[in-house]
């Protein structure tokens, strides 16, 4: 198997157990976990204050869990489609893994 670097683009599914995208990425080699706060793409559906509070604590817990496994969560802000590509280029990732979402701004 070709061992290479993959970006794991985390969006709504912020867990490490039974996470299909993570499993697939790990099978490919090194994994770089990434969360992008994109306030532009969702337009009027962007997250509000209560969701941001929940998100902050969820991302902190996820980063702690990743740290226990010798990794860390990369946090970025901007248009997700652009930022994911930039991070992939920065880390030399051969692929991006993500859970499929059906909301128009995720497609």
Give a written overview of the molecule:
The protein is of the alpha/beta class and 107 residues long. Helix content is 38%, strand content 21%. The protein has helices at residues 20-28, 49-68, 80-91; strands at 4-10, 29-37, 74-77, 95-97. It has a 4-stranded parallel β-sheet with strand order 3-2-1-4. Strand 1, helix 1 (20-28) and strand 2 form a beta-alpha-beta unit. The longest helix has 20 residues, at 49-68. The mean pLDDT is 88.
Rough outline:
globular
Mean pLDDT over all positions: 88
Question: Biggest sheet, strands in spatial order?
Answer: 3-2-1-4
Helix content: 25-40%
Q: Strand tally, please? A: 4
Brief digest:
With 107 residues, the chain is α/β, with parallel strands linked by helices. The chain has three helices and four strands; from the N terminus they run βαβαβαβ.
Note the topology.
Elements: E1 4-10, H1 20-28, E2 29-37, H2 49-68, E3 74-77, H3 80-91, E4 95-97
Parallel strand pairs: 1-2, 1-4, 2-3
What are the salient characteristics of this protein?
alpha/beta, globular, 107 residues, single chain, four-stranded parallel β-sheet, 3 helices, 38% helix
